[in-house]
Every structure is written in C-alpha cells, then in structure tokens.
Amino acid sequence: MNCRSREAMCQASTKDLATYFQRALASGLCRESDVKSWVEEMTGRCAGDVPQWLRDLSVAPSTNKERLLDAVPGESNDEFVWKLMFASLGRSFREHWLNNGQVVYLLLSWAVAGTVPEEYRRVAYLFDDHHEGIGPGWFAEEELRKEMATFFEQFCAYEPLLPTSPQASRP
Questions:
Q1: Span 133-156, average pLDDT
Q2: CA 166 to chain centre
Q3: How far apart are CA 167 and CA 110, in angstroms?
Q4: In this structure, is the dihedral angle defined by the CA atoms of residues 146, 151, 157 and 163, taken in order, positive or negative?
Q5: How far apart are CA 58 and CA 13, in angstroms?
Q6: Which of 7, 19, 39, 81 gives the lowest tally of CB atoms within 10 Å of its CB?
Q7: What Cα–Cα distance (Å) separates residue 102 from each residue in 53, 63, 74, 156, 160?
Q8: Residue 47: which pLDDT band, with cuts at 50, 70 and 90?
Q9: What is each CA distance from 127 to 19, 55, 97, in whole angstroms?
Q10: What global pTM score does this model have?
Q11: Are 165 and 15 in contact, with CB atoms under 8 Å apart?
C-alpha cells in the first residue's frame, strides 16, 4: 500500500487536531511529547499573539494535557477526527509500531465503548473474530493482515494531516 502518493482531502482545524490529540493520548497512539511539538509549532505561528489555551498547554508540562486540549476553542468535526485516528492507527499497523492484536484491541475497545462511528463498528468485531480464530486455525494471520491493510487504505489520504508521528523516534 502506497499512502504517500495520495493527496489529503482537506485541512484539519486547530480544534480537530486538539480532539485528535485527546483521543490519541487516551489510546496510546501519541505521546505528550507529540502534543508539546504541536504546541511549539502552533506557538511559532502566532507571531507574539499567543492565545491563552496555547499558553496553558505550553507552560504546564505536568498538567493533564487531555483536559487542556478540551479547552481549545471551536468545534471539531467528529467524522474527520475519526479519519485522522484511523490514519494514525493504519500507519502504526503498516509500520509495525503496533502488532495485529494491539490494532484489533484498539478498534474493538472503541467499538465496545460506542465512541467510533457506527459504520466502523462492524469491521472492529469482524477483525476481532478473525484475530481470535488464528490460534485455533480457523483463520490465517496473513488473511487478517490483508483485510486490515485494505481497511486502512481508505484513510491513507489523511496521513499527511497527522501531526508528528507518535513513534517516529522509535529505533
């Protein structure tokens, strides 16, 4: 799968990225250092007129980042943020930053919690069934990887919109 050749469909708003970071932090798809990098980049764009929410994020390293990210003004596009989440999870899958079980676990936990959009819940349960079927020999691991790769391919266009890669510093 070649995600680099696709163009991003639209731009993410500041609130979309803040919401993405909230979810990604809670899911383990990014680190607080990724939020810090984003905040530094945003601060650099402000040319001296830094909004209070951005100052709060930049000067409070031990504060709950998820709570501070919630204070970012504006409305996020939930469907769009989920596409960013799936792009991040797909990249983590493709780059082997997460194994099959970890990816299935995240998808399933979102589906069970009811936070993921309805149209993606079925695939989470399907992947879980297939993953559970690998041990007893009911389903081939390579088939699961192919199905997962096909699913995540639809989100490749959103990868260029993702902030700093959560695992970019991994060896």
A1: 92
A2: 9
A3: 21
A4: negative
A5: 19
A6: 7
A7: 33, 28, 32, 19, 23
A8: confident
A9: 26, 42, 18
A10: 0.85
A11: no
CA 104 to the chain's CA centroid? 14
Coil, strand or helix at 146: helix
Report the C-alpha gap between 155 and 116 in whole angstroms. 15
> Is residue 143 over pLDDT 80?
yes
Q: How far apart are CA 7 and CA 60, in angstroms?
A: 35
Q: Which two structure tokens, joined as six digits, stand for 122?
A: 């079925």
Q: Which residue has the tokens 């041990």?
A: 135
- Positive or negative torsion for Cα 25, 64, 113, 79: negative
Cβ neighbours around 68 below 10 Å, total: 20
Q: pLDDT digits over 9-27, tens only?
A: 568 888 999 999 999 999 9
Token pair for 151: 């699913």
Q: How far apart are CA 26 and CA 131, in angstroms?
A: 23
Residues 70-90: what's their mean pLDDT? 93
